[in-house]
Amino acid sequence: MDSTMEKISSNKVRVMFEVEPAKFEEGMVKAYRKNVSRINIPGFRRGKAPRKVIEMHYGESVFYEDALDAIFPELYDAAVELHGFNPVDSPSIDVEQIGDGDTLKFSCEVFVSPDVTLGQYKGVEIHSYEQPVTDAMVNARLEQARERVARFEDIEDRPLENGDEASLDYAGYMGDEQFEGGTAQDQKLVIGSGGFIPGLEEQMVGMNVGETRDIEVTFPEEYHAKELAGKPAVFHVTLNAIRKKELPEADDEFAKDVSEFDTLAEYVADIREKLEKEAAERAQTSRENEAVDKAADNAKIDIPEPMIERQLDQIMRDMEMRMMYQGMRMEDFLTYTGQTGAELREQRKPDAQRRVKTRLVLEAIRKEEAIEAEEAKVEEEIARYAVEMKKTADEIKQDMSPDDWENLRDSVAIQAVVDLIRDNAVILPDADQEAGETAKEEKKGKPKPKRAKKAAATEEPKE
Q: What's residue 453's pLDDT?
C-alpha cells in the first residue's frame, strides 16, 4: 500500500491511497463470507452459493463496498502513523478506481487537529483581583457559625413575627380548584426569608398557633411553572407552631463549642487567616483564568466543527449527570426553563468553542516551550488523590493503567503551561493603587498614567 497526504486547509487533510490487487482481494474474501448467508441464488441452498456464481449473477461490484470497509481501518491507521496527522472526525471516502484486478485507488478527507498560530502569551496584562479581608467579612463568617449552632424555642404566648420559624400546612387554589404542587403538610418557613411566593410571608405575620387564614397572592411573571406564572391564587394556610431562633453569645464558651480554640480571640484570628487564604486562592484562580483567556484570545485557530460538537456532547452529559445527583431529570429542567434540548445545546455552544480553543492553545504553548511533566509534581498529584480517595499513594499507583499515567502527566504538564502564562503576566494596578501612583506622579510634575479598565473575573460559573 502506498499513500500520500496533502493539506487542504489548516484543519483538514486529504490522503490518497494505492492498494495492490492482492490486498483488495483479501477484502473481497471477507465481504463474501460476510454476505453469502444472505444471498439467494436459484439452484443453491442459502449460504452455499460460490463467490464466482454470485458475482456472475449480481456483478463483482456487489462486494466492493464491504471489501473496502474490511481493509480500510488497517490502511487508514497505517497512513495516520506514517504521515503523523491527528484526525478529529470520521473520514469521508472517495473511490477513483476499484475492482477488475486493477490497483485500488481512493482518497479520504478528514478533519484534523488544527494549526494554532500563537499570539502573545507571555506578558499579557491581567488584574490582581486582590480583595482585602475586612472586619465585616470576619463577622459574617462568625455569624454563620452562630447560625449553625442556633437553637429554636417553641413560642406559644404571642403571634407570629418576622424572623420566626413557622410550621404550616397549606393548600393552593385557583378559583375552586387546587393546583398541582401547591399543597404541603408541616412545611417549615422562616418568616421574612423570602422563601415563598411574594406576599404570603408578610400576610402570615400576626397569626396565632392553630389559626387558619386565606392568603391571596399573585405568582411572579417569570415563575418556572408557566401555567401559574402571573396568575392570582389563594393559599389556605394553617399555622401549626412557632419557633424562635436563639443564637449563642459570641464568647469564649462559644469558641470552645465550635472550634479547637479556647478563646474567642483565637477563633476569630483563625477565621481571618482562613478568609485571607481563600481570598488569595480566589485571586490566583481569577488571575490564572484571565491570563489563559487572553493567551487564547491572542491565538488564531480554525476549529473544526466536529471538535466543537464533541465538546458540546461532553458538556451536555456533564449537565445531565449533575442534575441526576440533584434528583432532577434533564426533561424536567427543560420544562422548568421553557426551552428545548436543541436551544440549550445552542446556548452552550460558545462555552464549547472556548474550551476547545483554550485546550488547543495550551497544548500549542506546551509544544512551543517543550514543557514536560515534572515527576515531583506527578507524585504530588498522586498524593493528593490518595488523600481524597483515602488510600495510600502506592495503592493509587497500582490501580493506574498506562492511559491513566499518560493522562496524569498531560494534566500536570498543562498546569505547568498555565503557571507559565500566569507567572509571566503583567498585573495591572487596582484603582486605589493607581490613585496613589497618580498622586505621586502629579507631585513630580509627570503626566498621569492611563487608568486600566477593571475586568470581571473569568472563573467559569458552577452549574
A: 32
